[in-house]
Structure formats: C-alpha cells, structure tokens
UniProtKB/TrEMBL annotation:
This is Folate-biopterin transporter 2. It is found in: Membrane. InterPro entries: BT1, FBT, MFS_trans_sf. Belongs to the major facilitator superfamily. Folate-biopterin transporter (TC 2.A.71) family. Keywords: Membrane, Transmembrane, Transmembrane helix, Transport.
Length: 496
C-alpha cells in the first residue's frame, strides 16, 4: 500500500514537472491546480469549498463583523460593554459545533448526509439576513436572534464542508494537503477582500444594507446543497442513531478523563478566557471619541484588512519557521509577545504616538497587523496540538469538541471584557478609564504563562496520547487522520 502511494506520488511529481513553468505559471498554475482538484474530486466539491470557506466565512464573515459593529453602535445604540456581551451571544452556535458534527455524521435526511445540512444552513442565513435588513425598527432581542441564526447557518456549513473534506481526503490521500491549502487560501483571500470593501459598503448602504448583501453568500451555500455530488442511500439505519450518539459520548468522556488530554484542554480554555476582549470599547473610541482619531467607515475596513494580512503572515511564518518547535517553548514566547503587543493600544489611547509624529491611521494599522499576526501564531500550535489529542475512531467529533472549548474561551473573554468595560464605566461618551481597561487586559494576557505547565513538553512530531488510545491503525492511517483534522487550520482563527 505504501509502495503504491509512492508510485502515485512519483507520477504526480512527473506530471507537475511537465506542467507550465516560468512566468506563465503565475497565471496558469492556479488554473491547473483547480482543474486537478475538480477532476480528482468533483467540481461540486470545489464549489462547496469556495462558497463556504471563501465567500461565506471569509468574505461574508468580514462584512458581517464590520456591519455588526456599526449596527450595534448606530442602529441599536447600545453601550460598548453591552455590545461586547451581545457579540458573545451570537458566537454560541460555534460553541456547540460537536452537535452539528454529530448530526451530519449520524442523522441522514432522505438518504443524504451532507446536502440537507448545506440547504438548512443556507436557509438560516437567507431568512435571518433578510429579516434584519428589511425590518425598519427591529427590537434588539429579535436582532440578536437573527444574528445568532445567521451565525448558526455559517457554523453548520463549516462543519458540513469539513466532513466533505475529510471524506475526500480518505478517498484521495495524495491530494489531502492540496484540499487543506484550498480551504486556507479561500478563507484568507475572502477575508482580505471582505475587510477591504466592508467600510465602503457600510458607508454607501449602511450596516442593514450590508446584511442584505449577506444573503448572497447564504444563497451560494444553499445552492451547494442542490448540486453537491453525494451518493444516495435509501437504506440508512435510523435505528442506530441513538446508539452512535451514545457510543460517541462515551468515547469522548473516556478521552477527556485522560490527564494527557484534559490538561492541555484546560490551558487552551484559560489562555483564551483570560485574554479579555475589549475590542468594542476600542471601536467606539476609534469612531466616536472627540479625543480619538474619529475614523470613518472606510478607514475601519482598511484597518481590519491589514489585520487579515497580518494573520496570513503569521500563518506563513508558523508554517515555514516555527511549526517544529516544542509546544511549551513556542507558546511561552507567543503569549509573552501577545501581552506586550497590547501595549500598542495603550500608547494609542494615551496619544503617545502623536508626540513622536506617528499618525493615528499608520499606528493603528501597524498595531492591528502585529496583533493579528501574533494571534494567528498563538492559534495555530493550539490547533496542531488539538489534532494530536484526537483518539482513533472519533477524530472528527472530538476535534469539533476541542474547537468548542476554544470558542467557549473566546466567549468568556468577550463577556469578561464587557464586564470590565462596565465596571470602569466606559460608555459611548465616556472613555476616561479606557486606558486602565487596556492595562488590565494586558496583564491578564500574561497570566496564562502561570499555567503553561499544563502543556506537554513534546514537539509537533511526537505522540501525546497514550498508546492504547492511538488504535490499531498503521502509521499511514494515523498520519492521514492528523492531516484531515487540520482542514480548519487557518479559517477558524476569528473566534470560530
């Protein structure tokens, strides 16, 4: 089996050598690559990845973030501490990702496992975005329900396309890495384009108009459920659903009780929860404070787009330089620099940058790019560690559970930041103690260093789980499983 894989890899290398080279490769290379993926899998699978990762999560997620910021501030007119809490509420569907994963795995609908869930996620997005964009004066409670439903639609599509990628990776292991690259590339490009145009669209048509535009990504996800190539099985055993749920639950609980698993899980939760999120307070100060820079909608979008570039640079830096470093050593330095990077916000709020002749726009762009780059560097080793904690047989579901722990940490961070802003009386018009909130946040960012002992000393190339949890599969299968679970390596970075 290994020899056959080597022969296939050699043939693939020969084909690549015969492909276009030189300057023409810059244009034709991506086209040949997309064509190869479409031929090896199916064009509908490539369409699903582009629609879900690139347009729905990448471009749509960027537009949704900026429009939600302005919708809460200008339409609902809530305080920054309240907006911080409401943002956390809309992220709850991402915390229950294991539920969506189990549904797509064990509860087929009319003989299909994936297509109905794409249709469901598309309908959720369409209805929720239409409600919030067309209603004149939507009550805050119903607006939150609509935003949460839209978030659920994106989360369900994310889990479903992950399952499709995993299936195709099993069928075509030689292009598993190419499928991961496709997912990461689409997400990064989509986010960059989305943030670049978000401010312009918010300025031209307002945040509610942008929500109306978000029906387009939802419609594309819906169409994926119509055209996706998936075998139909009318004899699926629905009676086994409860047994599968029970078996998966027992396996996950047995794994979580293992010290080699719960200790890193505890660290991952604490590292996110203790890094208090006060972004809403900073956003209000950016746009409303008379002592602040008074950025326009267009400028806010450009700032976030530079943040996307910083995140992409962080991914490249990790992949090419840092990926083989021991987990504990790497996370120590990343967490330290993450706390120090927060001082850039303090310098901005105290207006120290102006004393050195650095314009606000330049300083904020640098700060956003640096923060997002370090944040990506922090996220990626934790994702790799999470993949290595998944036992054989329940890799997909357990990986979704670990991602939910991370997302629950982000939710705690958002609510903790909202409580901090409320305690310090940082409001729409009062920013006198925003500097203190930033200082406290920076101190909390350093606190995970005290529990770094929960992280194993091993490097990404060593095994973490006990031998009995690794299963009886050979090394090739185990390696394929680890690769499959890294599908979401880049596109999950924005608290997803």
């Amino acid at each position: 089996m290994v020899e056959e894989g080597n022969i296939e890899a050699s043939n693939k290398a020969v084909e690549e050598d015969n492909g276009p080279k030189g300057l023409y490769y810059c244009f034709w290379g991506p086209i040949y690559w997309f064509r190869m993926l479409a031929m090896e899998t199916h064009w509908s699978f490539v369409f699903a990845v582009v629609s879900t990762y690139g347009i729905s999560q990448g471009l749509g997620g960027a537009l949704a973030r900026v429009s939600t910021e302005y919708y809460m501030k200008d339409v609902q007119k809530v305080q920054p501490s309240e907006s911080q809490v409401y943002t956390g509420i809309t992220s709850i569907p991402w915390i229950v990702k294991p539920i969506w994963g189990l549904l797509t795995d064990v509860i087929p609908i009319r003989g299909y496992r994936r297509r109905p869930y794409f249709i469901l996620s598309g309908l959720l997005g369409l209805v929720s975005m239409l409600v919030i964009s067309l209603h004149g004066k939507l009550h805050l409670v119903f607006a939150l329900m609509a935003l949460t439903a839209g978030s659920a639609g994106v989360a369900i599509a994310d889990v479903t396309v992950d399952a499709c990628v995993a299936q195709n990776s099993n069928k075509n292991p030689s292009i598993a890495a190419d499928m991961q690259s496709l997912c990461s590339l689409m997400s990064a490009i989509g986010a960059l384009i989305g943030f670049s145009i978000s401010g312009v669209f918010v300025h031209l048509i307002g945040p509610k108009g942008v929500f109306g535009l978000l029906t387009i990504p939802a419609a594309l996800v819906f169409s994926v459920g119509i055209v996706l190539l998936e075998p139909h099985d009318a004899n699926l055993a629905y009676k086994e659903v409860s047994e599968k749920f029970l078996d998966a639950g027992k396996a996950m609980w047995r794994t979580l009780k293992c010290p080699e698993v719960w200790r890193p899980c505890l660290y991952m939760y604490l590292s996110f929860a203790l890094s208090l999120n006060i972004n809403e307070g900073l956003f209000y100060w950016y746009t409303d404070s008379k002592e602040g820079p008074l950025f326009s909608q267009e400028t806010i979008g450009y700032i976030f787009s530079f943040g996307a570039v910083g995140a992409l640079l962080g991914a490249i830096l990790y992949q090419n330089i840092l990926k083989d470093h021991p987990f504990r050593d790497l996370l120590f330095w990343i967490q330290l620099f993450y706390g120090l990077a927060g001082m850039l916000d303090l310098i901005l709020v105290l207006r120290i940058n102006l004393k050195f002749g650095i314009p606000d726009s330049v300083f904020v762009v640098i700060g956003e790019a640096v923060t997002q780059m370090i944040g990506r560097l922090k996220w990626m080793p934790l994702l790799v560690l999470s993949a290595k904690l998944c036992p054989s047989g329940i890799e997909g579901t357990f990986f979704a559970l670990l991602m939910s722990i991370d997302n629950f940490g982000l939710l705690s961070s958002s609510w903790g930041g909202g409580l901090l802003l409320h305690t310090l009386n940082v409001t729409r018009t009062k920013f006198g103690k925003l500097w203190l909130a930033i200082l406290i946040r920076n101190i909390f960012r350093l606190s995970p260093l005290g529990v770094l002992f929960l992280i194993p000393r091993g490097d990404p190339n060593s095994s973490i789980l006990p031998t009995e949890m690794l299963g009886s599969e050979d090394e090739t299968v185990a390696e394929e499983s680890n690769n499959i679970e890294l599908v979401s390596l880049v596109n999950s970075v924005d608290g997803r």
